[in-house]
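1st attempt posting a full record on here, be nice pls
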Amino acid sequence: MGRITRATDFEIRPLTDGDRRAAHELLNRAFHTKRSTDEEWEKLAPGFPAERKFGAFGDGALIGVASSFGTELAVPGGKAVPAAAVEAVGVRADRTRRGVVTALMAEQLRDCADRGEAAAYLRASEATIYGRFGYGVSARRKSLRVHKSRARFRPDAPAGGQVRLVEPGAAAELLPGLYQRIGLYRHGMIARPEQWWAWSAARVAEEYHVAVHSGPDGDDGFVVYKPEERGGSEPGEGLDVIDLQAANIETLAGLWRYLLSVDLVAEIWASRPLDDPLGLMLTDPRACEVVDLADNTWLRVTDAPAALAARAYGDAEPVVLELVDPLLENNSGRYRISPGGAERVGSPADLKLGPEELGMLYLGDRAPSLLAALNRIEVLNPIAVEAADRLFTTAVAPHCGTRF
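the predicted structure (as tokens):
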């Protein structure tokens, strides 16, 4: 059955199949969404297995849930590491602020470490919760509002290939293989296991549309979108981009050309990487308006030796980091970071940091010098700060691109 952790008035244990429906309804309430009907639950159940879910039980009832699924996370340099995608954490409204989340998160982190996963990855509903468990903002995103009437492609913009619409049933068969074929082309992306696709298929309603791009070598990208009104009076005044994956810049341009060709549309909204180039492809860059900039994913290193050794580093003199991790003590130690990789050492440290700051640095989203200036990193050797920037900085912004 797995480990049981007991607190003063509740216990944490792995969920069983018989707990799944109650856990799903608890999360619906925690996130203020409607209850699922029996018919809806039948569709959702395959994407909501008991595996990797922990429940907090008090007075014989379920009072909290923490859920994740196993995946792979792309890291700078092209490798991918085993990781946990934390998909939902919720507590019953009458049992909040009593240590339930703390106990659930601690158990989940221990489980990730026991499974040999290098990191845990999540999207935070509240930004004040997860830092205390060692999660740091690892990637940010910009929200775009594209004004169709003003969006004209420059003559030198990539043309793209052919785009075709795919019916929902065919899309469910096509997209998993296509996503795998496109590959984890940007660090921060995650693999999508069968469970994720089952979860996704259960939520793709009839109003969702799927378009697939084909280039010289066949299918190489897709976009999932739906019509949605946002403050306007005309039906279908906007398109909300749910999922856009493109193997290269030509594919990206082709998918955007398609979206901007859809009739009876005034605006298109999309959540994109910080360095998304759409505005640079338009004669009027302001037609691609950035309306929001926010955190996208948070990362928590659960196996520091494996995580640090997996990613690539820039060209600079070696730097010794000292990691102090009170929740996962096996992570604590000193690591020599160099262009050739990372290894645990006994040498004196140049910089000292905690797991939250390591999460912010790991994918290259934030520079060590910034965190040092903000007193988030303790500088023991000032010369090492510039070298750390060169080691950890990446030319491409990290981005996940998968909702979970």
